[in-house]
Amino acid sequence: MRDEDLVVMGFVRGAFGIKGWVKIHADTEYADGLFDYPVWWLGKNGSWKPYTFENGAVQPKALAAKLEGVEGRDAAELLRGSQIAVPRSELPAPADDEYYWNDLMGLTVVNQQGETLGKVDNLLETGANDVLVVKGDDGQQRLIPFVEQYVLDVVPAEGRILVDWGLDY
To answer: What sequence ranges are listed for the domain Ribosome maturation factor RimM PRC barrel (predicted)?
Structure first.
């Protein structure tokens, strides 16, 4: 499976218990949304391997999952740090003016004056709204609320996001 065919949905935080369960951090809208996918692709550095999802549980601070073929704590611990992805073809199409975070990563952020602020490096979920983490070529990081007031246009096909945000903010 190629990187561009997959959408990263979280990562393995470590082992959970002694029976081969893994502790998961999921970057999904709903905590247990990852449980909807029967096959997870786990990987590091672009090398992916499929695992069949067997069972899952929502824990107070994380998710726990049992994957087929992962038996015992040592096997689960070997997966620590692996990204969890699902094929893009299995995801529902986003509604108009909605985007998967994965599709925003790496887009160039430009303001109305034509100044390049940097590229989207990450997104944060704050509760009130999502926030774009934009890193400039100079290493400066800007946090831009992903709301209509500041994000004027998102054009993934052109690789850019137009914002109402100054270089000095």
So the answer is: 101-165
